[in-house]
Structure formats: structure tokens, C-alpha cells
Amino acid sequence: MNHSAILETQDAFGESTLIADPARIVDLCRHLKDNEKYIRLSGVTAVDLHPAEPRFEVVYHLHSLDRNQRLRVKCRLAGPNPEIDSVTAVWRSANWYEREVYDMFGVVFRNHPNLVRILMPVDWEGHPLRKDYPVHGYKYSYPSE
Amino acid sequence: MKHSFEDHTATIPAVQETPATPSAPRRMTLNMGPQHPSTHGVLRIVLELEGETIVKAEPDIGFLHTGIEKEFEQKNWQQAVTLTDRVDYLSNLSNNLVYALAVEKLLQIEIPPRAQWTRVMMAEFSRLNSHLVWLGTHALDIGAMTMFFYCFREREDILRIFEMFSGQRMMTSYIRIGGLALEPPRGWQQAVGKFIRAFPSKVDEYEELLNANPIWLRRTQGVGFISLEDMLDLGITGPMLRGAGLSWDIRKSEPYSSYDKFDFKVPVETSNDVWSRYRVRLQEMRESAKIITQALEGMPDGAWQADAPHVILPDREKMKTQMESLIYHFKIVTEGFRVPAGEVYQCVESPRGEIGYYVVSDGTSKPYRVHMRTPSFGNLQGLPKMLEGILIADSIAALGSMDFVLGDTDR
After folding, report:
1. What backbone torsions phi and psi does residue A66 show, to the nearest 5 degrees?
2. β-pairing, A56-64 with A69-77?
3. Element (H or E) spanning A108, and its range?
4. Of A95, A117, A129, which has the smallest distance from its Cβ to B69's Cβ?
């Protein structure tokens, strides 16, 4: 597979992973969908590698029905306020998946049609799946109180 | 400020109307759920109506969010199996299975054939359980009450079998990393055999009740259409796709846990409506029964746990005679086993579609990150597309045909 946005390829446990340039993710995804037939986006998620830098990895799981193949694309994002372009224009299913990543990790997806929290209440503060977010002892007060 | 019931209802009106103008007809915003019985859980849908036609639907989820993915990071690898049960209460064994397969891929351990076959059998029972609850509740929504009692009668037998195997009716945690939680109990062949011999005639009974029922036919045929392209683009998987003519089943396309040794068909229907999804699920029940029969007849002998002393708790007897077993026991009980660093994505065909677990290990005894790609979350995203343009009376039939579990959506 050849594309200038691919920085690195890895193969482990029979699964292939591409490390991609975050600035050109939409470009790469469109190429993978149109030319490599990855018509399904199985999911988008993220991993917080805190305190390492670059801190976040946004992970896309792609699936090609024609070739019966799966592919993982990863983008590494630095800093506490990461941003990346949304791939909703390529696969509509990215809409909710990206909202979940935004909700849980605070990764902002640029050009997303409706980037609001999906699982937590809309006025929640913080992003629960970040490694520096506490597991216990968080008190939530209702907005009307 | 004191919070009273009146205040609350005043701020969130259940029904909102906009006056009609010459250019646009009058629209009404209707709040459906989150306590509506026909939404199969705590799902809220904000519907925008023109007369009785839905012009816009917006699902609102998250009411059942319990932070399971965060909790995974606090448990050790084997303890986390119990969390997978609680994701989807109807197909907990499929969730056990996919997590175990993912971690075993990282550990690179071989599972003996007897454990693999038992896993397949239990996963298929889980599919039957889920489809039975779906059929019963879906038929109840549409007005066929008898179905509910029939389906729950058979489901009760399945739950008894689960209890026999694992000691639990619903939260079984029966499939563990490295094999099974317990050896299959004595006499399981009789219990499973008795159930599975009678089951096909029960499916005949359901079909007799529904297939020629004019109310059922008119409420399901031609209702809930959504094109195959839209479904693939929106992330819908499972029986929904097979009801639209796409023959894709992960059990066939990416066989796991020795599914390739079983003979079964992937039922496909082409009419792409509630009726075709009903047909697909009924035929899947028959195929699952076939798989269970094959597992019953051809169950291999041998070990039910992997030969991996660093993962599996040692035998009591060996602990008393062998120093190494005692050391392994101490390590597994106190710290838990360590899993080599790496990342895997494992998916299985659950009753609802593709469950995929993305598991990341950093080499310690706790998962670093577990992401669950749950079929209900993906499927529900296609709901607005399916509801828009249909009558509000059909919305219940249409959303019921998706067969989502809200615990599975919100995790």
C-alpha cells in the first residue's frame, strides 16, 4: 500500500497497522475507501499514553468486505488539547464514533457536523477515559441545584 | 433551589408545536422515551412530526453509561471477564468469548478442542437466548402477546442450562481466558439433548403463529426500509445486513473458536424490511440449533483449559506436591498473570452484529485499554435514517427490528 501520508507500517498478531500523518488523515481515508475498498469503518477509538508524548493515539478500524481484510490506522497526537480532522465526510458512521472519542478523551474533531458529548451529560466537565481522570471520588452536582 | 416534579416537567415539555405557515406545514416535536417500554431500554428519541409522518428523529443515548471501559483498567485481566457479561445482558457469552479470544491472541496460547467446542455451543445458546427475547418482545410491541410467553418459556430452559454449566443464569462469566470457568457438568448431554431435540418444533410453533397472521404481515412487510449502502456507511451490522441481501457473517468470513468445523448456513433475505429481519433471525435460530446438535454429537474429549501454567490456576493436588505449581498459584492469585505488550482487535458475530474488542496491553497484569465496538452502538446510529419518512405507528416496528440493547450501546 502506497500513500505519502503513511509514516510507518506494522504487522503483529496477524493484524496490520498503519501509522498515519494526522494532518492528512482525511486524504488517506478517502484513498483507502475509494481505491483499497475499505468500505466499512468498524470503529474509531483512542488510547491515552499519559505521561508519554505524543500523548494520544486515535485508532481507526477499517474493514473491507470484498477482500475480507481488516486494517488499523493510527494517528499520534501530542499535547493535552489534541485536534484532528473528522472523517465523517468519508464514512458517515464516524459521526457517533468520533463523538464518543471526543466525550471520553477530549480529542477535538475539526469539521465534525455535531461534536457534542454522547455518553456523558452535556454539561459534564473532564474526559473520563483520560489516564489522569480519577476513578473514584468525583462528585457531580445537578445543574438545577 | 428546591427541585420539584412540577418544575421539571415545566422545563422539558413532552410535546412542542410550531404554528403552520403557508410555506411549511405545522410541525410537532415529540419526546419518546427514555422510559418508553417499546424502546427496549433507556433510549430517548426526539421525533419531529408532520401530521403522523416522522420528518426528523434524533436518538439520545448515554442513560445507561456505567464507565465499563474505565473499569477495565482497574481490574486484572481475568477479573475483567465479569465486566464483559454486563455489557449486553442477552448475549453475555458472546462478549465473554470475544474478550477471551482477544487476550488469548496477545498471550498466544492454544485452546484445547473441547473448550473451543463448548464455547461455540454456549455462544450459540446465547444467540438463541437473545433472538428469543427479541422475538418475544418485538411481537409484543406489535400486538402478538402469545409469542412473548412462548419465547420466554424456551428462554427459561436455556437459562437453566446456563445455570447448570456456570452456576449463573445471566451473568455467566463462563468463558474465561485460557478456557472455561468450570468443567462441563455431569449430565449436560442429557439436558442439552432434551432441549435441542424439542427446539425445532418450537420454532415451527412460532412460525405457525406469525407467518400467516394478517396483522403481523401488515405491520412488518415493507416497513423499516433502509438501503444496504446506507447501512454499510452508517455502521450497521448483523441480521440487519443479512435481511438486505448481504451474506456476511463473521463466523464464516473470519472463523474463530473452530466455527469452520461446523456445518451451517448463513440465512439471507432480500426484502430489506422488518419482515426480512424476522425471517433471518428465525432461520438463524434453526441454524444455531443445528450447530448445538453438532457440538453435542461431536464433542471432543480432553482438557477444557489450556496448558498454560502461568495463566491457569493449578490443580489442587499438584499444588501440594509441586513447588512450581504453588509459585504459579501465588502469582496468579496475588498479582494476576501478565500479558505481553501489544494491541489486538478481535471480532465475533454476536446476535446483533459485529462485536469487536480492541485490547491494548502494556505488559502488566491489568489491561491498559479495552475498547468495545458494540453492535448496538453502530446499529443505533442508523436509526434516524430508517425512521425518517415513515409513520409514527411504524416506528415501533422499525426500531424493534434493529434489536439493540441499550446497555450494549452505552457501556
Report:
1. -60, -45
2. antiparallel
3. strand A108-110
4. A129
Q: Shortest CB distance from A91 goes to which of B106, B233, B342?
A: B233
User: B113 Cβ partners below 8 Å, 6+ apart?
Assistant: B258, B300, B302
ipTM of the modeled complex: 0.90
All residues of chain A having their beta carbon less than 8 Å from the beta carbon of residue B253 are 68
| Residues belonging to chain A | 145
Contact residues on chain A for B46, CB-CB shorter than 8 A? none
Scanning B143-243, the segments in alpha helix (DSSP H) are 145-166, 188-210, 214-220, 228-234, 239-242
**Which residues 121-160 of chain B have a CB within 8 Å of chain A?**
none
Is the CB of B17 inside 8 Å of chain A's CB atoms? no
All three cell numbers of B127? 444467540
Size of interface A-B (CB pairs under 8 A): 89
Flag whether residue B368 sits within 8 Å of chain A, measured between CB atoms.
Answer: yes
Residues of chain A with Cβ-Cβ distance to B344 below 8 Å are: 13, 15
**A91 contact B CB<8A:** yes
Which residues lie closer than 8 Å to B208 by C-beta, 6 or more apart? none
Q: pLDDT tens digits for chain B (411 residues)?
A: 334 344 444 445 566 676 666 667 788 888 887 877 666 778 888 888 888 889 989 888 888 888 899 999 999 998 999 999 888 888 889 999 999 999 999 999 989 999 999 999 999 999 999 999 999 998 888 888 888 899 999 999 999 999 999 988 888 889 999 889 888 999 899 999 999 999 999 999 898 888 888 888 888 888 888 899 999 999 899 999 999 988 999 998 989 988 999 999 999 998 889 999 999 999 999 999 999 999 999 999 888 888 888 888 888 888 889 888 899 899 888 888 889 999 999 999 999 999 999 999 998 999 999 999 999 998 999 899 989 888 888 888 888 888 888 888 888
Q: Cβ(B361)–Cβ(B71) under 8 Å? A: no
> What does the DSSP 8-state code read for residue B404?
-
CA separation for the pair B395, B399 (Å, rounded): 6
**Cβ–Cβ of B345/A93 closer than 8 Å?**
no
Provide the 10 A C-beta neighbour count for residue A101: 26
CA distances from A36 to A7, A17, B37, B230, B236 (A): 18, 15, 44, 19, 21
